[in-house]
Design goal:
Layout (H helix, E strand, L loop, with lengths): L15 H9 L3 H18 L4 H9 L5 E2 H8 L3 H13 L3 E6 L5 E6 L1 H19 L3
Antiparallel strand pairs: 1-3, 2-3
Helix pairs in contact: 3-6
């Protein structure tokens, strides 16, 4: 039986003190902008299945079609369609429609989304170590 892959250290990011110092290094207007952006992101990611959709992209090496996501996640089509539209509008996914019969639409993560992907790796690492 093969050995499981080595799991990277969970604390690979900023310490709490370093994060606090970074936050305090910004002027009030910039802190407010950052807090608003974080709140908006958490609002978006807190919607039904949004995290599952982005997580699927985080672990995929190719563009995904609506049907790929629908099969993988077993999400109602109307909910999936809404989440994809919201994630596209937020600049986290690009939508490419091909002029074919039948029509083909593919979604790819943007650089903004890819910058979030370490969060999903971190969450999976956490799940290896902890149960809810």
């Amino acid at each position: 039986m093969a050995e499981p892959p080595e799991v990277p250290e969970l604390d690979a990011g900023l310490s709490r003190e370093e994060a606090r110092a970074l936050k305090e290094s910004f002027d009030e207007a910039e802190r407010e902008r950052i807090q608003t952006t974080v709140a908006d992101l958490l609002d978006l990611l807190g919607r039904a299945h949004a995290m599952a959709v982005l997580s699927t992209f985080a672990f995929s090496e190719e563009p995904l079609r609506f049907s790929d996501l629908e099969d993988e996640l077993e999400i109602a089509p109307n909910t999936l369609s809404t989440r994809l539209s919201e994630l596209t509008e937020a600049g986290l996914l690009d939508r490419t429609a091909y002029d074919e019969i039948p029509p083909r639409v593919e979604y790819t993560p943007t650089e903004r989304a890819e910058a979030l992907f370490p969060v999903f790796a971190h969450l999976h690492h956490w799940a290896i170590e902890h149960d809810l």
